[in-house]
Design a protein that fits this description.
By secondary structure, the protein is of the alpha/beta class. It is built from nine helices and seven strands. Helices cover 48% and strands 15% of the residues. Pfam families: FUT8_N_cat.
Length: 216
């Protein structure tokens, strides 16, 4: 059986233009949201992962930004590696626009998700140049597990799931659509509100890849 959720039902397609600029992304996001519906355990771990972030609803001068850097998975065969500075450049552009609109300086709380621990170390060094206006935090244990065979174990899968949920909750995300993680984050954000413009990809445009399911 081939699962192709991008086949949006004709009965609702014409009405989707009212709520979404990308009906396909919205439709796929409905499936993803249902599959990833929270459990008490995932909610507990997600709250713990977000503990380093100040509540965005109570302080208007703080914005939450997510960065997903694909470091080890299939880079040689499927995707190009981008330096961290390229991700930061998009963050700088976003903050400059937001500060011009708001009329006051913005502090960025940046969640960095990656499967390469060295990227987190590099981000810590780059953070210093922003003089406290950028606060970078990461799920370091998830990065270490994702960079090894442990990513296939339960703890590794849970770490990836939490990264996805935290990224989807950020106001602005920079990633690469060649990554399944990045596309999943965009789909989850699209369901909540039409936030497609708040996900910036450094490489390809959004696309859905159907997959085959063979019952055992």
């Amino acid at each position: 059986m081939i699962l192709i959720p991008r086949a949006v039902p004709s009965e609702i397609l014409s009405r989707l233009d009212i709520v979404s600029s990308n009906p396909v992304m919205w439709w796929v996001g409905q499936f993803a949201t249902y599959v990833l519906r929270p459990t008490p355990e995932t909610e507990r771990i997600e709250r713990k992962a977000k503990a380093n972030r100040r509540p965005r609803d109570f302080q208007k001068n703080i914005t939450t930004i997510g960065i997903h850097v694909r470091g080890t998975d299939k880079l040689d065969s499927e995707a190009k590696s981008y330096p961290l500075e390229e991700y930061f450049k998009q963050v700088e552009i976003h903050l400059a626009i937001k500060e011009r609109i708001e009329g006051f300086p913005i502090t960025a709380h940046i969640f960095l998700a990656t499967d390469e621990p060295k990227v987190i170390q590099e981000a810590g060094k780059l953070e210093q140049k922003y003089n406290g206006t950028w606060i970078i935090w990461a799920n370091e244990s998830a990065a270490k597990e994702a960079s090894t065979s442990f990513s296939r174990f339960e703890s590794g899968i849970m770490g990836i799931l939490i990264d996805v949920l935290v990224l989807a909750d950020c106001e602005f995300v920079v990633c690469t659509f060649s990554s399944n993680i990045c596309r999943l984050v965009a789909e989850l954000k699209e369901v909540e509100v039409d936030k497609q413009g708040e996900v910036v990809s450094l490489d390809s445009s959004y696309h859905f890849i159907p997959f085959a399911y063979v019952p055992s």
